Amino acid sequence: MSASLWDMEWQGLANYEYILTDEWFYRALYTTLWLAIVSGLPQHLIALPLATLLFRLSNRTRHFLFCFYFLPFITSSVAISLVFSSLFSRDFGVLNQVISGLHDWVIFDIQPLAWLFPEQAIDWQDSSHIRWTIAMVVFWRYVGWNTLLYLSAMKTIPEELFDAAYLEGAGFWQQLRHVTLPMLRPMILLALTLSVIGNMQLFEEPFILTAGTGGSGQAGQTMAMYLYATAFAEGDFATSSAIAWLLFIILLALCSLGRRINQKNNG
């Protein structure tokens, strides 16, 4: 142990220079940011109206329906990824079978949907599809979590505000815009921050869906997968540590930017 320690050399910023000149780093960063936007933004755009609708229901109905939305979040990510892997399988996947059935559907001796659905099975692991596949799984899993955050925050809004808006003739969307959203601004900032942090560290879903390879051309490789491959596939723990620090700096910058924008809007 002492000999190996003495043999070590100070690298300075050499590992960071290597990463910043590595093409795969920028590909992984692009994929991570793409997934953060495509799977993250729809979560909040749907979770907010959904939470508002649940908030207006009775407690028994609200709790019953919410179980279905929250179930994916508490389910093991490995189990979810394995289920979706079977759904998106090229040769035996349910989705390809449904698409094939719609393509071959015949009515009055014609195939009305043949132009819309392809005849050949779709390879969902292909570079043009894998990101959308991962984004769909991530969206489906976390939309219930964001709904819970917004629903919990709505319970703290005074009921008098909604009553006053109703007496003034405000409809559902007007109350959502002028009452709910302004009161939920702190929770929206928290939910967006958690989404940014979670998406920038996305690992389990893309790793299992792509069998750890990142898909065709590594189009589904995220920053966390790039870090993992550098450390455990290539055995370069020094470079992987530098990747972790760069990921931390990127996260810190994004969260600080979001906080600054929120403070500017509040000011």
What percentage of amino acids are in beta strands? under 5%
Give the C-level CATH assignment of the domain at 13-56 and 129-266.
Mainly Alpha
Q: How large, in whole angstroms, is the Cα Rg?
A: 23 Å
For CATH, the homologous superfamily of the domain at 13-56 and 129-266 is named as: MetI-like
Mean pLDDT: 85
| CATH fold type of the domain at 13-56 and 129-266 | MetI-like fold
Shape: flat
Alpha plus pi helix count:
13
Tell me how many strands there are: 0
Largest sheet: none
- Helical proportion? over 70%
| CATH architecture heading of the domain at 13-56 and 129-266 | Orthogonal Bundle
Can you tell me about this structure?
α3 runs antiparallel to α10, α4 (59-74) packs antiparallel against α7 (130-154) and α12 (223-233) packs antiparallel against α13 (237-266). The longest helix has 33 residues, at 23-55. The protein has helices at residues 2-7, 14-20, 23-55, 59-74, 77-87, 94-103, 130-154, 159-167, 172-183, 185-200, 204-209, 223-233, 237-266. The mean pLDDT is 85. The chain has a domain at 13-56 and 129-266: MetI-like (MetI-like fold, Orthogonal Bundle), CATH 1.10.3720.10. The N and C termini lie far apart (57 Å). With 267 residues, the protein is mostly helical.
